[in-house]
Amino acid sequence: MRDAFKRYGPLVYRRALTLLQDPREAEDATQEVFIRAMKNEAQFRNDALVSTWLYRVTTNYCLNLMRNRKNRRRILEEQVRPAQELSTGPETSTVVMVRRLLARADQRQARAAVYVYIDGLSREETAELLDCSVRTVGNLLDRFNRWARNEIEAEAEKPQPCAEMQVSRV
Amino acid sequence: MFETVPTPTPSCPSELLLDRWHLGELEPSRAATVEAHLAGCPDCSERRDARDAGFAALPVDADRLFAKIEAAGPRRPVRDFFDRLRDWRIPALVVATAAAVFVLAPREQGIRTKGGDVGFRVFREHAGQVEEKVSGAAFAARDRLRFDVKASEGSQIMILGVEESGEVYTYYPAGLDRSDRVRRTSDGALSGAIELDDYDGREWLHLVRCDDAFARADLITGPGPKGVEAPAGCDVRAFEIQRQR
User: Fold this and answer.
1) Are B6 and A39 within 8 A, CB to CB?
2) Beta-carbon-side half-sphere exposure of residue B196 (alpha carbons within 13 Å)
3) How high is the ipTM of this complex?
4) FRET pair for A29, CA 20 to 30 Å: which of A67, B89, B115, B239?
């Protein structure tokens, strides 16, 4: 397992860091993914594409973590943090917005959205990771987009609450 | 509504594709395409160099992390229950234990005491009303849950929620990865409450009690009433909730 860790560990850690944006949480995620790999060693070793298996498991774990209530709170705090603490680049604000939405979205739609919008995977690659058809990926993304549009519009219509009020809802 | 976010240009390989190439998992023609791109793209050359450097390019102590993984890895599997039943002493022990449980087991609803002096009760606040629920009861989105735990002095506890998909949430201590002692409010219940989201399906709440502090990573989790495996000497109590939107 040490060899596997040396070979695949950076992939897992980098993947977790991309999604979680927190080195400590990325380390915890790497630990958890490799523990799962040890539990499913036969599957881990026999999978033709180990990287695909690890990519999928790491993504699912990180999305679960983002749905965790503590992290929902933290992700909401990202929005209410004073503007000068945030990078002003459009890419960063888009990623923050997408991450906030992912924390609340339907699981399967969220996975499709991560692969396509965060990772830049093709729909064919996404279909392989989700073990579904390309058409299903399209449907999942359509549903995610409709849902996200409604969420964003609903937020825009709300009066802006103070930070304390906003983080109290988990 | 969203455009693809991170890759420098649309023609750059995705992270997964680059990882597959780096691990030698691509078929030759596809690998050649990636290599041709790398030769002419400084951004992707940097991405390749980072992969070549392995953990050295990442802000993490790989040796320490691997030691943690080994320490928290799966324990030796227990012998199958039916194998153990073939041992002539076990049936006698089962009969004796069943008799003792029948006579001694408490009848309180919502508490599952399987041997140790550990109790786990779940209360629901719904539309301003608070009521104790029994395992298997239905819960709705936006219900607030509070817990009452009976455990020996100095115990370290953690309460996890495990959905049918295997997703795990830490409900006590809220969102943390380490156990905590039993902290009560003035009404006797554990401090803190959780509000259920709109997940639709079964979820198992697991109270884990140990004498010493433990980490979330010390537990092996999965769905089902016996889905949580804790270190030796610890107690686990399960409570099933049926969640509806």
Assistant:
1) no
2) 28
3) 0.73
4) B239
Give the strand pairing for B235-244 and B137-140: parallel
Number of C-beta neighbours around residue A153 at 10 A: 9
Q: Is B177–A28 a contact, with Cβ atoms under 8 angstroms apart?
A: yes
Nearest to A69 among B23, B168, B169 (CB): B169
A152 touches A120 (CB < 8 A): no
Contact between residue A103 and residue A74 where contact means Cβ atoms under 8 Å apart: no
Q: Are B228 and B205 in contact (CB under 8 A)?
A: no
Q: Helix H segments across B54-201? A: 62-72, 81-85, 89-104
- Quote the pTM value: 0.52
Beta strand pairing call for B129-133 and B156-163: unpaired
| Residues 6+ away with beta carbon under 8 Å from A91 | B5, B6
Q: How far apart are CA A26 and CA A32, in angstroms?
A: 10
Q: Give yes or no for a contact between A102 and A147, defined as CB atoms under 8 angstroms apart.
A: no
- Strand, coil or helix: B82: helix
Nearest-angstrom CA–CA distance, B3 and B239:
43
Q: Is there a contact between A5 and B66 if contact means CB atoms under 8 Å apart?
A: yes
Task: Judge: B174–A69 Cβ closer than 8 Å, yes or no.
Answer: yes
pLDDT digits (tens, 9 = 90+) for A35-79: 888 777 666 665 557 888 888 889 988 888 877 755 555 555 554
Sheet holding B129-133, edge to edge: B129-133, B119-126, B144-150, B194-195
What's the DSSP call for residue A121? -
| Mean pLDDT by groups of 10 residues along chain B of 245 residues | 44 87 89 92 90 84 84 49 38 44 39 58 78 85 83 89 83 80 74 76 91 88 85 91 84
Considering only CB atoms, A9 lies closest to which of B7, B62, B195, namely B62
Q: Where are the beta strands (DSSP E) in B134-217?
A: 137-140, 144-150, 156-163, 168-172, 180-181, 194-195, 201-210
User: What H or E segment, with its residue span, contains residue B119?
Assistant: strand B119-126
> What tokens appear for A109 in the block?
């739609």
